[in-house]
């Protein structure tokens, strides 16, 4: 098999890249190790930055998002019984975010790709990326029990943190930057209307909690739990009681309960691999970087990477210049490190470390007071939350 761009992985990064290349008239093949149902049902991110929304619309993948996505103009911070709303458009010159689940983004992009785009092979596991340093990189893969090879002009590794692409960068050239956190998020989906119409980020002495939503009738809720917690060790009533404690306010706000339909624990990690390019291999999304989900940046960063790659390849075709391809890693890493900083800061602001001292607790509260009382501090948060521009 031969193509211009071999894409490893059909998460949001790989699927959007295939769509962007298709609309630019560049052929690609996507290899995805899992089946379609698995990819479409994997619960993950849910907050789309303004820039991501704009890109999906421009790629012709925004119709259902525009119908069903929920535009949010604010988030609420909660601590010590207090509530403070951050008005996103007022602080950012009109920018907002959209709540539309990653599962739905993937479903929309898969449907478009199968209808109009190049091959998207499910159950096709890439075994390695070979000859990345040459003009003819290759991806040996296994599809429905048969061994095959995809020969390409370029390979984009969109295969997530556990994929094979990153391993093709020689160890002597690789550098990783990493932090693991001593806690994770217990996330639940519940069949109940969200108790607040915007996201609520709560800092509590017992740990962080987040109220989010998937639709007007489905709530997505998270609790900070110790690293390594088994989701099944938490009973449903216990989860609701703990959520109520952490979201408690001084006014008459209440949390509506409903049937919990799914629960899982997400570990928290910050990770960056440099460089994001080796020869004709480009790493994109979680294959190159991970952020803790507190800043809602993971999916949006993946979008930024593949937009940067697609623009660079189109530029190369139109002008013959490889300048933008050569600048790929530098361009992406600028945004990546800003997102790493923001995601780390939001995590530190809102979570309670197991060894936190009373001094650190007071600092957290002082930071929250600062955001509530200083327009500059609040605008800094709002600007990062709604996303850094893609150009
Ligand atoms: C449990 C969880 C919860 C999250 N929650 C949030 C959140 O609330 N907010 C947020 O912003 N972000 C969240 N994230 C992060 C966000 O979902 C990711 O940043 C996003 O999925 C990155 O997209 P991606 O396409 O780069 O990688 P992925 O979505 O990981 O996609 C990679 C794809 O590659 C495939 N693959 C792997 N290896 C191979 C191979 N050898 N051959 C072929 N295919 C392969 C995988 O099956 C997968 O489909 C969460 C992540 C996880 C794991």
TrEMBL record:
The FAD-binding domain, residue ranges: 2-343
Origin superkingdom: Bacteria
This protein's UniProt keywords: FAD, Flavoprotein, Monooxygenase, Oxidoreductase
UniProt GO molecular function: FAD binding; oxidoreductase activity, acting on paired donors, with incorporation or reduction of molecular oxygen, NAD(P)H as one donor, and incorporation of one atom of oxygen
Full protein name: 4-hydroxybenzoate 3-monooxygenase
Native species: Streptomyces lasalocidi
Highest classification ranks of the organism: Bacteria, Bacillati, Actinomycetota, Actinomycetes, Kitasatosporales
